[in-house]
Design a protein that fits this description.
16 strands; binds FE(8)-S(7) cluster; 436 residues; 4-stranded mixed sheet; 13 helices; alpha/beta; single chain; 7-stranded mixed sheet; binds iron/sulfur cluster
């Protein structure tokens, strides 16, 4: 049986993590957000934590080249700024990409966002990136356009981004101090020249700050991604957070470095570790008072398709989409999304009632709980079938999504796998309850 218990412990419609009690349930958006911004973020699964239970995004891998080198990247794979290392995407021409978007849009009506996030840097491949966006803006105008970049070329393209109504730009900013940056970036290619060391980091930093300033001035929402690298920039990211907030960034997504020797990255080969889940949470908590933090990122691949955390890319390979009979039906999409909205409003109402019921409780206690879910904000997954648990911090104020922990499936062919159980228990050992 599926239970809508997440209605009570989740679904703050405010991507900003609004703390005001009972005021966040309006379908018009949170009180502290202007309606124009709410309109931009409400169906974007990355910019709104609540939306990610209902709406999907897709990426098209049209941008192979990159103009910088990050120590956590191996060029054989996708851009690690928005992707797990070790993942390779099928590269597409803009024409194939447009066909793929229409094929996905007609199969998955809750797909609302098209992102270009690699496999290299979209703005190091401007013609392919913008040609793809142009075709989608023309053929599927209801789909939001989203771009992820390292920022080096950004100041040169803000006008074009604006002209195409790309409302969402993500920039990976790992430092605001070149002495930290030189430990992350061995070189950047700028003005027909390869720059190394501190000079390279200085150029990157200046271009990123200029780009962020320009985006904000043009009313384009900017999410900042930062890779947390213990011993390199972990103590520095609070300063990055302050700086990007002061320049008007909308959301900050601090992601863990994923590093292993088999990825063949400089960090992987040199034994650089990633942060633990607890270290990541502590840093996110520290920055949270200062600005909106994203905690539901899945570090998806450059050809990801589906809800965050779900991978349907295999259903839409080049070979398959070339054979598909694609019929883009705007009306059908809109009517499906209208049903989703009805569900969302109901869910928010139940959440408000749940929060009201807590009003009498006098306690500052905060507890972590683990939830097994297949999505849509429901507790609807078996314990043994869960491939991940969503972690929530619950208190009398309601609940806050903290992150997800990947696990191996406990149930194997109908039998519990005791070795796996041990690892599941370790993954959620800091939680006081499991909802499944
Ligand atoms: Fe893609 Fe990025 Fe747009 Fe989202 S992803 S380009 S903002 S549509 Fe989202 Fe994926 Fe995390 Fe990126 S979960 S890696 S934050
Ligand atoms: Fe790799 Fe992306 Fe960094 Fe370029 S920006 S080096 S593709 S991680």
């Amino acid at each position: 049986m599926s239970l809508p218990v997440l209605n009570v412990i989740n679904n703050n419609p405010d991507p900003a993590g609004c703390k005001s009690k009972g005021s966040c349930g309006s379908s018009d958006g949170p009180k502290d957000m202007d309606p124009e911004t709410w309109e931009k973020v409400k169906n974007h699964p990355c910019y709104s934590e609540e939306a990610h239970h209902h709406y999907a995004r897709m990426h098209v891998a049209v941008a192979p080249a990159c103009n910088i080198q990050c120590h956590y990247c191996n060029r054989k794979y996708d851009c690690a700024n928005e992707s797990r290392p070790g993942v390779v995407s099928e590269k597409l021409t803009p024409e194939d990409a447009a066909k793929k978007v229409l094929a996905v849009a007609s199969t998955i009506p809750q797909m609302t966002v098209l992102g270009i996030a690699g496999p290299g840097d979209p703005l190091a491949n401007p013609e392919k990136t913008f040609r793809t966006f142009e075709m989608i803006a023309e053929k599927a105008p209801d789909i939001k356009l989203c771009l992820s970049t390292n920022g080096l070329a950004l100041p040169d393209y803000v006008d074009r981004i604006k002209a195409l109504n790309v409302d969402h730009v993500t920039m990976t900013i790992n430092m605001v101090d070149p002495s930290v940056g030189e430990k992350i970036y061995p070189w950047v290619y700028f003005n027909h020249k390869r720059w190394k060391g501190r000079d390279a980091a200085k150029i990157l930093n200046e271009r990123q700050m200029e780009g962020l300033d320009m985006l904000t001035a043009n009313g384009i929402l900017c999410k900042v991604n930062s890779v947390m690298i213990p011993g390199v920039n972990d103590d520095h990211l609070a300063e990055v957070n302050k700086k990007v907030k002061s320049l008007g960034a909308f959301l900050h997504n601090i992601m863990p470095l994923i590093s292993a020797p088999e990825h063949g990255t400089w960090y992987g080969l040199n034994g650089q570790r990633g942060p633990t889940a607890q270290e990541l949470k502590a840093l996110q908590d520290k920055c949270e008072g200062q600005m909106n933090m994203m905690r539901h990122c899945r570090q998806c691949r450059a050809d990801a398709v589906g809800l965050l955390g779900e991978d349907r890319s295999k259903e839409f390979t080049l070979e398959k989409i070339r054979e598909m009979d694609v019929e883009y039906d705007l009306e059908k999409r809109q009517s499906y999304q209208a049903q989703v909205e009805v569900k969302r409003v109901e869910t928010r109402k139940m959440k408000e009632e749940g929060i009201k019921a807590l009003e009498e409780i006098q306690s500052d206690l905060k507890l972590l709980v683990a939830v097994a879910t297949k999505g849509e904000g429901m507790i609807n997954e078996h314990f043994g079938h869960a491939r991940e648990f969503q972690i929530y911090e619950v208190s009398r104020d309601g609940s806050k999504f903290i992150g997800h922990r990947r696990v191996d499936m406990y149930c194997q062919g109908g039998y519990g796998e005791e070795d796996t159980l041990e690892t599941v228990i370790r993954a959620i050992a800091d939680c006081v309850a499991v909802f499944a």
